[in-house]
Design a protein that fits this description.
The complex is a heterodimer of chains A (536) and B (175).
Chain A: H1 2-5, H2 11-20, E1 24-34, E2 50-62, E3 65-74, E4 87-99, E5 102-109, E6 111-112, E7 120-121, E8 123-124, E9 129-130, E10 133-143, E11 146-157, E12 160-161, E13 165-174, H3 175-178, E14 187-199, E15 212-224, E16 227-236, E17 251-262, E18 265-275, E19 318-330, E20 342-358, E21 365-390, E22 393-405, H4 406-410, E23 417-430, E24 435-446, E25 453-462, E26 466-474, E27 486-496, E28 499-508, E29 511-515, E30 518-522, E31 525-535
Chain B: H1 2-21, E1 34-37, E2 42-44, E3 55-60, H2 65-85, E4 88-93, H3 103-110, E5 115-118, H4 123-127, E6 135-139, E7 145-150, H5 156-168
Parallel strand pairs in B: 3-4, 4-5
Antiparallel strand pairs in B: 1-2, 1-5, 3-6, 6-7
The chains are: A mainly beta (536), B alpha/beta (175).
Chain lengths: 536, 175
């Protein structure tokens, strides 16, 4: 039929078709970058000149059944992404059904056990991070408040699978649902435990490597009113690997978090200790490949550009740290609150090495669980004051102090530690119903590394469709005068419901792009970029 | 050829009639996925409820600046919105273990009155085909998705409220 072939001309036919497939949904994203060689900023020559990463996700669901498929295309992978992403693949596919409290998944899946200290499988498209599993997963709820999960699977490594086989089981019980005297009590208690075992054959001609490596973890969550406590402890058996230099020592991790919050304020305290906790399904894998667990960084997730020059990334081989965060709202019509109230946020963190004693044997070292090493990895103090001046004007002032050990953070030698102060002012001004302006002025002051930076940004939005932004990052304090470079950039974006198209042009500095404490090194670049995102 | 044209006209009219008669069925509902409540217990998204009144479902994160702009902008007028339409905002945080413990303090520190859940490994985010945050859905009284929007620019909240009013009155907003 003519109509079906030219569906756009016949809206009725399209509607009819849509009704038949109302259970199918999807999302799409495409990031294209054009590269111009720029020896001043260190942007390399890219032979393809244009590179693109894209994906299209499809999900189908109908009652208790669902299925999904993802197409990925890297032609070729953008600079800074692992170049083993190359070509086009339908790699991700799954079917799931749920019946009588049992959920069965065959194919690919993502999963997290507890806090993730021994197992988290997830995807972060912007980082090129994807440790999806491929196998069979069961989730079963035998009684209210009891959840058991188990799987056996291989793990994705770019467009292939790693050599290891991973087995896992996790159980969680919510005491309030299970134990009658606790039902309806204000205190909620949840207990959980998990176990992971990986198998990889030992082909090493010299060493006798463990072929089966197990790890287990236990967790507790208690919540009462505005108070909550959560924690997980994990233990990993001997797991000689490339990352830990083939030592046979066990690994341990502890993550604790305490929160108290009431209307108008909140406090969070967290502490973490890691010792030899890099855990992968392939003992020879490095960087962001074939990771089995997730070790959250405990330092503020920065959003202002200059504050992301020195981002903290977790050191899985060993670190100990604390973080405290306070949010407070001075009420309207008080001295500090003014007419509209004032929001204040404070975040402080400190992360050090762990205390180790070398043993000279196959175990590598010993470490006292309760003592902290004397090498500072990272420190930061963040103070943010957020003030509404009048109906249309908002002001956010931020002060940040960072201490960043480059050698540890970036795996370099002899670069030392950076001590930096940052001051940031942001103004949000609503011109009228549809037009708004946002401006940022940032300064970073340091004697070390690249020296001082300044940054200015102007963003203009016209609701509901348009977005315009220009910014310039200027390394004016670099000791090398040739490197006092302006990294300018301009972008324009158009959004219509869930479709977003953005076009940009500019120079990007070399640096680490981090999401959730996992980072990827991005080389300097100069050129045009296009990003399209949509879903249905 | 004539027959084909006739056929397509018929199909066109038929499908419009079908569409008008079964409009509600053509709208997708939200999938049931386990997320976490703020007290640490598991919550199935099928159980989201607002007594037949509209729900705004907003995917956000503590590190996402436009998300906070959006939730702040709505917070300023939320009481009025609720009084006028009975709408409820569900703030679905996609913060992972790194930042999920900041969610409660930030919500209270900002003075937000929203119903908040955690989706720490992105299960619900993937099921809803959310690529970027903020991504905001408007659900009608039958918990069907009638409208969705990604990104935020100041002023967008007023368009959203126009849609909320239509949905509260039993209509379907035009995209």
């Amino acid at each position: 039929m003519l109509c079906i072939a030219a569906g756009i001309l016949c809206p009725g036919t399209v509607l009819l078709a849509q009704q038949g497939i109302s259970g199918i949904h999807g999302s799409f994203q495409m990031d294209v970058q054009q590269y111009t060689e720029d020896s001043v900023i260190g942007a390399p020559e890219v032979p393809e000149q244009v590179l693109a990463n894209s994906f299209l996700n499809l999900t189908y669901s109908s009652g208790k059944f669902s299925a999904g498929l993802r197409y990925e295309s890297f032609l070729n992978a953008l600079q800074g992404f692992d170049q083993r992403y190359e070509g086009n693949y339908f790699l991700f596919r799954y079917v799931t059904y749920n019946n009588d409290g049992l959920e069965v998944t065959a194919g690919n899946f993502y999963e997290q056990f507890g806090y993730g200290l021994i197992f988290r499988s997830y995807q972060e498209w912007g980082l090129g991070y994807d440790n999806a599993m491929d196998g069979v997963r069961l989730r079963y709820e035998p009684a209210p408040g009891v959840m058991v999960k188990g799987f056996i699977a291989k793990q994705r490594s770019f467009f292939d699978y790693g050599p290891g086989i991973v087995r896992g089981i996790d159980g969680e019980i919510r005491l309030n649902d299970l134990i009658r005297p606790m039902t309806g009590k204000k205190t909620n208690v949840t207990l959980g435990g998990s176990f992971i075992s990986k198998y990889q054959s030992d082909d090493d001609p010299l060493l006798k490597l463990p072929e089966n490596v197990a790890a287990y973890a236990g967790r507790l969550d208690v919540a009462r009113g505005g108070f909550s406590f959560g924690g997980e402890y994990a233990y990993k058996m001997n797991d000689p690997s490339t990352v830990n230099n083939l030592i046979y020592k066990e690994g341990q991790a502890l993550f604790l978090t305490t929160t108290y919050t009431k209307k108008g304020y909140g406090v969070t305290l967290r502490t973490k200790r890691l010792d030899n906790m890099d855990f992968r399904s392939d003992r020879t894998a490095i960087v962001n490949n074939l990771n089995l667990n997730f070790l959250p960084a405990i330092a503020k997730s920065q959003t202002y550009r200059l504050a992301t020059i020195y981002p903290y990334a977790t050191q899985p081989n060993g670190e100990a740290g604390v973080q405290a965060d306070v949010f407070y709202r001075f009420k309207p019509k008080t001295k500090l609150g003014g007419k509209y109230g004032t929001n204040v946020a404070l975040s402080v963190s400190g992360i050090n090495s762990i205390d180790t004693v070398r043993t000279g044997d196959e175990y590598g070292y010993t470490s006292d669980f309760f003592s902290i090493g004397d090498v500072a990895f990272f420190r930061d103090v963040n103070v943010e004051v957020n003030k509404k001046i009048n109906k249309n004007l908002k002001l956010i002032l931020t002060y940040i102090n960072q201490v960043y050990n480059i050698d540890v953070g970036q795996g370099l030698v002899g670069k030392g530690t950076v001590y930096a102060d940052l001051g940031i002012a942001e103004i949000q001004y609503k011109i009228n119903r549809r037009h708004s302006l946002r401006m940022e002025v940032q300064g970073m002051f340091t004697e070390q590394d690249m020296g001082d930076w300044a940054m200015a940004l102007v963003e203009y939005t016209i609701s509901p469709h348009w977005f315009l932004a220009v910014f310039d990052e200027y390394n004016y304090g670099n000791k090398d005068e040739d490197l006092r470079i302006h990294y300018y950039s301009a972008s324009i974006g158009y959004t219509r419901n869930v479709t977003r198209i953005a076009l940009g042009y500019g120079k990007q500095r070399e640096g680490l792009l981090c999401v959730g404490g996992v980072c990827r090194q991005v080389p300097a670049s100069n050129g045009l970029s296009l990003s399209v995102s949509s879903s249905f | 050829m004539k027959k084909t044209v006739f056929g397509s006209v018929f199909l066109f009219l038929f499908s419009i009639a079908l569409d008008a008669g079964a409009q509600d069925k053509s709208l997708p509902t939200i999938p049931g996925v386990n997320v976490k409540s703020m007290d640490g217990s598991s919550f199935n998204t099928e159980d989201l409820e607002n007594d037949g009144k509209p729900i705004i479902l907003s995917f956000w994160a503590t590190w996402c600046k436009p998300c906070i702009l959006e939730l702040n902008a709505i917070a300023d007028v939320y009481t009025d919105w609720q009084e006028e339409t009975g709408v409820k905002l569900v703030a679905m945080s996609i913060d992972d273990t790194r930042t999920s413990s900041m969610v409660g303090p930030m919500v209270n520190g900002k003075g937000w009155d929203y119903e908040v859940y955690l989706d720490p490994n992105g299960d619900f985010k993937r099921a809803m085909n959310v690529n970027l945050v903020p991504h905001t859905f408007l659900l009608n009284g039958n918990k069907q998705i009638v409208s969705q929007h990604t990104t935020f620019a100041p002023g967008d909240e007023e368009d959203l409220f126009e849609k909320v009013k239509k949905v509260a009155g039993g209509g379907t907003p035009q995209e």
